[in-house]
Design a protein that fits this description.
Blueprint: E1 5-8, H1 9-17, H2 25-33, E2 36-39, E3 44-46, E4 56-59, E5 61-63, E6 66-69, E7 71-73, H3 82-87, E8 89-94, E9 96-101, E10 108-114, E11 120-129, E12 133-142, E13 155-157, H4 162-169, E14 184-188, E15 200-201
Parallel strand pairs: 2-15, 4-12, 7-12
Antiparallel strand pairs: 1-2, 1-9, 3-4, 5-6, 8-11, 9-10, 10-14, 11-12, 12-13
Length: 206
């Protein structure tokens, strides 16, 4: 699963340059001085829509029993996700995402980032909310225990190429699978939930 991911300064600057994200002067200044920021559940982040727009949405669907369901299991797409699966497909740009392994008191923090330059694109769903505006969630698939990611966690985001992402958003039928050939590196890092001088907590940006 994923409950923290990053976006890089250059990605946000590209969004702002295309006027798809409106930034105030303080936010622009932060983009000039900070390398990346963290996205956490309930926070706003850019989401790519089939129309080509990249609006900001709140991360996490809302249900009576949960305030922020940030991950959607692919095998449950015919249950609570059925409407969004049919009408609310999207892509979520990421610089990388964090996973934890080990026992609760001795967790190891892993940062998964792309081998090739450029953002990762994760399959997602979105839906409107009467009070909170549009919300999105990230689709999760099983990661086999023999795979690179499965050795860290048994669930992973579904990563797509721009071409496969376009087909996904256009409503391509069949099972959704990740794009072969998208490689990520596994780096052991300090927990992103502790403040470090080289990261910017996302609430400071939006």
């Amino acid at each position: 699963m994923c409950n923290t991911y990053t976006l890089f300064r250059d990605t946000l600057k590209d969004f702002a340059r295309g006027r798809l994200v409106t930034l105030n002067e303080r936010q622009k200044q932060l983009l000039e001085t900070e390398g990346k920021y963290l996205v956490r559940p309930t926070m706003p982040a850019p989401v790519l829509l089939p129309s080509g727009e990249i609006p900001l949405m709140r991360w996490g669907f809302v249900r009576p029993w949960a305030k922020a369901i940030n991950n959607a299991r692919i095998e449950k797409r015919d249950t609570m996700w059925k409407t969004a699966w049919a009408t609310g497909r999207c892509l979520i740009p990421m610089g990388g995402w964090y996973e934890f392994s080990g026992e609760s008191r001795h967790l190891t923090c892993h940062l998964l980032e792309p081998v090739k330059e450029g953002p990762l694109l994760a399959a997602g769903l979105w839906e409107p909310h009467e009070e909170l505006g549009n919300c999105f969630t990230m689709i999760m698939a099983e990661a086999g225990p023999e795979t690179q990611l499965g050795k860290i966690h048994n669930r992973m985001p579904i990563l797509l190429s721009p071409e496969d992402g376009a087909r996904w958003m256009a409503g391509a039928s069949g099972d959704l699978t990740g794009t072969p050939g998208i490689e990520v590196t596994d780096n052991i890092v300090p927990s992103p939930l502790k403040k470090h001088k080289d990261t910017l907590i996302q609430t400071d940006l939006f």
